[in-house]
Design a protein that fits this description.
Distance between the termini: 23 Å
CATH topology: CBS-domain
Strand content: 15-25%
Helix content: 40-55%
Largest sheet: 3 strands, antiparallel
Order of helices and strands: HEHEEHHHHHEEH
Strand order of the largest sheet: 1-5-4
Number of strands: 5
Shape: elongated
Radius of gyration: 18 Å
Length: 144
């Protein structure tokens, strides 16, 4: 099975200048934990995860004690809290390759990139569900 067969195509993406609380609202409204951050051409810049947003909750509190611009800390943008270094996967990679990459890197999602553009996203839940479906199908088949 290939990544292309399991991924969510055309995922919701955000711009790096979006306010974090707006991105958080999008994630809540769509029931997602990972948002690819793309530039105007659809090229991946980073990822915003639910963990990044949890860490961002510290920023307004720290604004009182740090010598940084308090406006930036009190109203952070996606670029201020996102993960910049992102592991990606090709849509033609196998699901086993994707699962191994996620397991070894302790990664909850992989943006699926083709020709430099984000075309999908593969989450740990997608991989586990696909493996479960595959094992259930294999168990239910009767050899000839």
């Amino acid at each position: 099975m290939k990544v292309r067969d399991v991924m969510t195509g055309e995922p919701l993406t955000v711009d790096c200048d979006l306010l974090v609380h707006k991105a958080q609202g999008l994630m809540k409204d769509h029931g997602i934990r990972h948002l690819p951050v793309v530039d105007h051409a659809g090229r991946l810049m980073g990822m915003l995860t639910d963990r990044d947003i949890i860490h961002a909750a510290f920023m307004p509190i720290l604004a009182e004690s740090l010598p940084a611009d308090p406006r930036r800390l009190k109203a952070p943008r996606v670029r201020d809290v996102m993960t910049w270094s992102v592991v990606t996967i090709d849509p033609e990679a196998t699901l086993v390759q994707a699962g191994l990459t996620m397991f070894q890197g302790r990664i909850g999602s992989l943006p699926v990139v083709e020709n430099g553009r984000v075309i999908g996203i593969l989450t740990d839940r997608d991989v586990l569900a696909a493996f479960h479906r595959q094992s259930t199908t294999e168990v239910g088949t009767v050899p000839p």
